[in-house]
Amino acid sequence: MAILIKDDRSIKKIAIAGDIIYEIFKTIGTIDISGMTTNQLNDHINKMIRERGGIPSFYHYRGFPKHCCISLNEQVVHGIPDDRKINTGDLVKIDVGVTYDGYIADAATTIPVGDVSHDVQRLVHTTKQALERGIAKAKKGKHISDISQSIQTAVETEGFSVVRELTGHGVGRELHEEPMIPNFLCNAPDPKLDAGMVLAIEPMVTMGEYHVITEANGWTIATRDGSLSAHFEDTIVITKRGNMNLTRVVES
Question: What is the pLDDT of residue 229?
């Protein structure tokens, strides 16, 4: 499938979807989520999306049953909200997709709940910094591998691991579009970046080994060794002069 180049009209709609995600994450950052169930947090996010004129992109996507993904601790991504309570010390990953007038933005954040260890703080900081460095390489004339290498270096220099089985992706008209954006150097297609490409860059990082398993629900991906993981994601658009962050999990 070819990489879709978005025009100004499309980018404006993706930006509106991105603004909705940005507002949601800012709001969640001001409330105490400890004691909430992941279902309650899902319902809160669904309400905020719809109040702002958006549609939850994940709801019923390939059969996914909830409006966002909420993954706890060793769960990396695709956690299905349920009756689990969020406790102090948990590492909560929230992944949200929003569709606005047919166009999609996708972003994720990791929230340490209450006091966590120095190593957990370092995991979260490193993963967010890896996203920041990946975005910095996402410029017209660069290649996907420039993003991949910068993320991998940022993570492995700190002694953490990059998940291999999952990657970032193009986004816009569909939730998952070309190109695939690995978070590590590998033998994969390596297209040159051009203005109008919209990319969801998303390092997924573990404290232990990078191997993952799929839980019994068929959706949730967790670390095989039970180690903690972190996940940050932003949707950006490549411009003639660099890029523009449309979801701003990493503030410019």
Answer: 98
CATH code: domain of residue 99:
3.90.230.10
pTM for this one?
A: 0.97
Task: Report CA Rg, the chain.
Answer: 17
Question: 15-39, pLDDT tens digit by residue?
Answer: 999 999 999 999 999 999 999 999 9
Task: State how many domains the chain has.
Answer: 1
32, burial (CB in 10 Å: exposed 0-12, middle 13-18, buried 19+): exposed
CA distances from 189 to 133, 160, 180, 208 (A): 21, 25, 8, 28
- Can you give the residue range of the structural domain that contains 202? 8-245
The number of CA neighbours under 13 Å toward the Cβ of 87 is 4
- Checking DSSP bridges between strand 198-201 and strand 168-170, what pairing results, if any? antiparallel
